[in-house]
Amino acid sequence: MSSRQFAIQFTVNGQSARVEAPPLKRLLDVLREDLGLTGTKEGCGEGECGSCSVRMNGALVNSCLVPILQVEGSVVETVEGLTVDGELHPLQQAFIECGGAQCGICTPGMLVAASHLLSHTPYPTVDEIREGLAGNLCRCTGFIKIFESVISAAAKKGSQAHAR
Amino acid sequence: MTASSNLRTVGTPQLRKEGVDKVLGRAKYIDDLEREGIWYGATVRSTIPRGRILAIHYDARVDWSEFVIVSAGDIPGKNHIQMISADQPCLADGQVNHCDEAIVLIAHPDKRRLPEALAAIYIDYEPLRAVLSIEESETQEEIIWGPHTSEGNIFKQFHLEKGNVDSVWAEAAYIVEGEYRTGAQEHLYIENNGAIAEYDEVTGITVWGSLQCPFYVHKSLMAVFDLPAEKVRVIQVETGGAFGGKEDYPSILAAHAGLLAMKARRPIKIVYDRMEDLAATTKRHPSRTRHRTAIDKNGKLLAMEIDIATDGGAYATLSSTVLSRATLHSTGPYVCPNIRITSRAWATNTVPCGAFRGFGAPQSIFAIERHMEQVALAVGLDSDEIRRRNFLHDGDTTATEQVMVEPVILDTLLDRALEVSDFHARQSEFARLNPLSPVKRGIGLAAFYHGSGFTGSGERYLNSLAGIDVTTDNKVRVLVSSTEFGQGTNTILTQIAAEALGIGYEDVIMAPCDTGIVPNSGPTVASRTSMVVGKLIERAGRQLVTGLRQDAGLLDNYSTQDFFTSCLRYRELHGKVESLCRYEAPPNIYWDDQHYRGEAYPAFAWAVYVAEVAVDTTTYSAEVTNFHTVQEVGRVLNPTLAAGQIEGGVAQGIGYALYEKVLYNNGHMLNNQMTNYIMPTAQDVPSISVHFEEIPFAHGAFGAKGIGELPHDGPAPAILNAIQNAINQSFTSIPLLPEDIFIRVTSDAHEQEQITV
Ligand code: FES
Ligand code: FES
Questions:
Q1: Which end of chain A is more exposed for a tag (fewer CB within 10 A), N or C?
Q2: CA of A117 to the centre of ligand 1 (A)
Q3: Cβ contact B187–A45 (<8 Å)
């Protein structure tokens, strides 16, 4: 891999970020190493587990598969950007209340994927949740409490909370 | 004793103690931590399953002066990882005994330079004949472990006799035989193994890691570095799943990071990527279990002859204790007057097998619960009826002659399971509809127990110490080495402390899990934390309240404020407010390690699980469509967390039964990626109903018994029983993949089950 550094500018959680990085450096590593946003996790590095899930320009992506040069000018949202004015996002609250997080390592990616789901499907059925989270593996919960968390968050807050 | 009706915190769904940090993404796992001047470590591993190391070459095109390199010769103490025996080297010295065994360690400040350097280290071997299966090991033609006698290749063996097995075959109305196999299984915690180490001439070695058992790592590091206890410190950081997979392996990884740190004189981080973690770390023991069973004309068990063989891999690690649990769970929850069990753990040249949720029990329970289904068919009884006629009851004895003194409510659990699953109605419905559809549906059940805590005298040897203290800013801290890795240790133990002290859940915190701060409350394994460690916390709490009453004027009906005021007074008198308790065995517990007789476990958790499946006879795929669990685990301390344990365990059990296959090629794991080692996803897990019956156990914390492992024991046999119900084919091996169903169904009738009736 070329070690030549490129200057790349993008927006993370509403703030503009500028990094110097080799063009093929993974977005995951830039977030974690260059920007100190360690909420986004690596579980497999090959697009299978979803623990590195972030939203990029409104799409759900595995940040381990995105070279940073593709991120130029993009809008990226990570788990650290879910809270609103220091308040837990309804999904974060629901994951705590319903037991949606056990070891917590899948949780950031799961929350981002769930918020993405609610952004286009505010009141998902269990089948829609299964489909929306199919790219995110959790080895602890058996997913049941994650489904309950998403349903509870959707019910509590209605669609307006997920306009973001 | 607090009256059960007055419990305020225990039994309520308190929110996970570290939940907020986890949902905010600010909980720090090992790979989230950095240190000033840190270097990154990597491992050169063997590419052959067995052979002598002749030479290690370092390609001159790499500037090795930039790297730190460690091999066996750099180890200051003993080159072994201290587990039950000391046979496993920290770094291979002269010989390798499995693929992916660590030989050389390297470190560099830029982790992106490590892959090319690893690829520039070549090892010359003289290959030796490798033993790669239980059957090959059993021939003892090649001895790869132990003495060159009939004991060769055997890590451990047990022989149990109850009654007189040989006397009853002649009078049996039925004799049923079967052989059952289970495969290796990967834990697949989503966070890979990782550690950070620092070495200092004066203070010694400090390791932070993703791990289950800080004091195991501590003990192992003392030997590798030849350091006294006070110069070794192990700190568990937030751990992203473990399931047994971080019970023994972290001792190796911690030593590796420590050796590099000592030589580099800098902090070292080693975090495996997924491929390395899958290839190099432990798996569940593969097993083969043979049953021969005599039954009378009423369907009562007369004799059980059971032979168990497990594949332990290249080193002994935990194979002896896994085998012990497999042995003690092999008869299922049944009473039988005549029992013979022989069991052996065999050495093979594969990556050592280790602890995995259930610890030998899922293997044995798969065998007995599949076998009971064949017994039912032979006798002509329903799945539930054959079990009901043979269930253990109060006063009955197990294979080790342990008398069931605590209430056994298997009949109730079975009734409830039949009711919540509508078992018989569903069975008839499926029988009626199956001929009309290419998708065949079926329902099956499994009944089982899981012994809570260490086996036999294990808890007495552990001699755990745990307790609480009170800080100057009025927080009660729980002092344990028991670790949180998702199961809820932090939450449960703080609930117990709050309850025992009569203060709020929010007034109690966990002390950092640091061997320099907390006492050794034993490893976080064996479903022992709630029951055993929890009990120590409960006792420590009551002891402190008594002390405060006696010395510091605490009155009845105190408020939280009164409590802390009284603590202040106590501190003035005694210098600190601390209460520690040491393990005490429940009375009348007797265990004979020699003959494997007596109270194998202080308590058992009991369960009946029901699976519904759909087998598509055009694609040959089997899917679990519904799942019901009914269990008795003593007092449920936190209903949300308890249900989460059951659901998560069932999902892993479904993977064990239908998805997760470890493929080996010449001893190397072939599918060491998440793309080809497949676990159940959100789309594969059915709805799972969870029902608890609660019978408080006097010697567990507020009545709790073990819960964590139980749910992994039952799904596999329940699912294969359901598949048998759906397509009338008896499969005896897991994982059961679509290709296995295809082969069986298409090769048709003469492939009938090897049941002799
Ligand atoms: S780390 Fe990106 S999908 Fe697993
Ligand atoms: S909570 Fe542990 S992997 Fe999901």
A1: N
A2: 18
A3: no
